[in-house]
Amino acid sequence: MTDGVPFKNPGWAGNTGEYELTEAQVRGHDYVGTRPRDGGHPAGAGSYPYMLVERHPDAPLFEGPYLERFNKIKTRYPDLRATLLPTLNLAQEVRGHVSPQTMDEVASLLELPPAYVRGVATFYTMYNKQPIGRFLVQVCTNISCNLCGAEEVLKAFLVYADTELGETSQDGNFTVIEAECLAACGFATCVQINSAYYENLTAKGVPELLEHLKSQVGADGEGEGG
């Protein structure tokens, strides 16, 4: 498949047809499109957590476009308690992790008992309970990926990111963890980095991928975009 030729989806996930995307665009590093931080239409405002390269642990909850999104989220649910998960998602998008202090602030915003919010937040592994690197690398090591070299991929990430499992590299860029399953068994080994999937990854491709990710970080340590 060459660049410039419309890519024909062979049918994964039950979808087929012609698309004006090349295979390199579909399988490449570039994210097609951006997600508005104000949430766009209220119907979709609560539908995604979006892990950005830049993290602001001390940022307020919520201001500017994030306050707009929070207010949109509240319109989509019958009561404030029902907004808890998307509100935690939004808090993590802003701060990068959900600390006990953040949980208490969310509890105050939603008029919920702090213990209830902490119980929910600590139940789900998708919420980072401590600061992480600019890029959270989740390597699937479940059976399909494991059979396709996931252990070697995981080791390569640890070696080339120069970190230990569950810890953050000294440059603050990478936190590498194992994921139980990323639901992409047909494209093993699958790795989720922040909000993007990287499929059919091998250990050989890890150094190039890490260099690509580093290029997204400016000299001041801030991400170039999100």
Explain how this protein is built.
The protein is α+β, with helices and mostly antiparallel strands. The chain has 2 domains: 42-123, Arc Repressor Mutant, subunit A; 135-214, Glutaredoxin (3-Layer(aba) Sandwich). Helices cover 33% and strands 11% of the residues. It contains 8 helices and 6 strands. The radius of gyration is 19 Å and the shape is globular. The two termini are 29 Å apart.
Overall spatial form = globular
Largest sheet: 4 strands, mixed
- Helix/strand/pairing class, anyone? alpha+beta
Query: Into how many domains do the coordinates divide?
Result: 2
**Could you tell me the radius of gyration in angstroms?**
19 Å
CATH class of the largest domain: Mainly Alpha
CATH topology tier name of the largest domain? Arc Repressor Mutant, subunit A
Looking at the overall shape, the CATH architecture of the largest domain is: Orthogonal Bundle
Quick description:
With 226 residues, this protein is an alpha+beta fold.
Give me the secondary-structure topology.
Blueprint: E1 7-9, E2 17-19, H1 23-27, H2 64-74, H3 84-95, H4 100-110, H5 114-123, E3 135-140, H6 143-147, H7 150-161, E4 174-179, E5 191-193, E6 196-198, H8 206-214
Parallel strand pairs: 3-4
Antiparallel strand pairs: 1-2, 3-5, 5-6
Helix pairs in contact: 3-4, 4-5
Summary keywords:
single chain; 226 residues; alpha+beta; Arc Repressor Mutant, subunit A; Glutaredoxin; 2 domains; four-stranded mixed sheet; two-stranded antiparallel ribbon; 8 helices; 33% helix; 11% strand; globular
